[in-house]
Amino acid sequence: MSQHKTGLLIYAKLVASMALWGATWVSGRFVAQHLSPFAAAFLRFLFASAFLYVLLCREAAQRGGGWPKLDRALLPGVAFLALSGVFLYNALFFSGLAHIQAGRAAMIVACVPSAVALYSGLVLRTPMGVVKSLGIALSLSGVAVILSGGDPCALFTHGASLGDVFILGCVVAWSAYTVAGGHVMRRTTPLSAVAWSCMLGCAMLLPPALGTGLLPQATSAGWVIWGNLLFLGVGATGLAFTWYYDGILALGAPRASVFINLVPVFATILGSLLLGEDAGLSLVLGGGMVLGGVVLANRPANRPANRSANHPASAR
Fold this sequence. Notes:
The protein is an all-alpha fold and 316 residues long. The chain has helices at residues 3-32, 37-62, 75-97, 102-109, 112-122, 129-148, 154-158, 162-184, 190-211, 214-220, 223-251, 253-257, 262-275, 280-297, 304-308. Helix 1 (3-32) crosses helix 3 (75-97) and helix 3 runs antiparallel to helix 8 (162-184).
């Protein structure tokens, strides 16, 4: 295959992975109407864990090793990724999508890179500069516009809705996952970190899933629900993850991570087409502010390890 065709294939994979992650919000919105949050999250990651473990086995075979094993030294870090990026994020993800539209939720979570930049500046004392500070302010202001329906002052009188609060919790959980992921992925491969965190997170989700009616819900679920769960676990987690890291290997993390800004755009478009959601002026305006702020806040190139941790493999 020529270099030109290879380059086009890489870009096609990146755009396709963003479309799959955008569709995650629409699919998750549908599943959240029929299953409890913990049951939906467990079943999603049951599929994802099985698929990713197969990829781990293939990677181990290519290296001439035996069955893949988790290095015990990595267990605390991977367990934190499982808790933040799989258990907490997905419980909040499905809880939020049971109450608010897919496009709205995706636009709120799109501010995660700005939240991480704010954390880096305030806690890690990373130099921010004027452009980055303006980007963070613009992005968070965009979230306020979305939450308030175009009137940020209304947040002080009416507050945010329950669904919005759940999705804001997703921002906190995924920001923690992103920061911790940079440290873990410097000590192992991205596939290993994501696969083991998915498997540990799936195990964490099992007890509350059983306690909230996993078995009766699973036995009564129709083929459409199972199809969406299969898509969430295999397509939007395993396959999209693989394509995204193909892009990182070919283009580098900074260039590949720029494509993540397409996720809320796809989510909003698909939510409108498939679920009949009304984007509305406040969502379009606020979403544009969020994405514009993210671009400004992340304009200086970050280290590849941190940017690669910003992938939405388990979240979008």
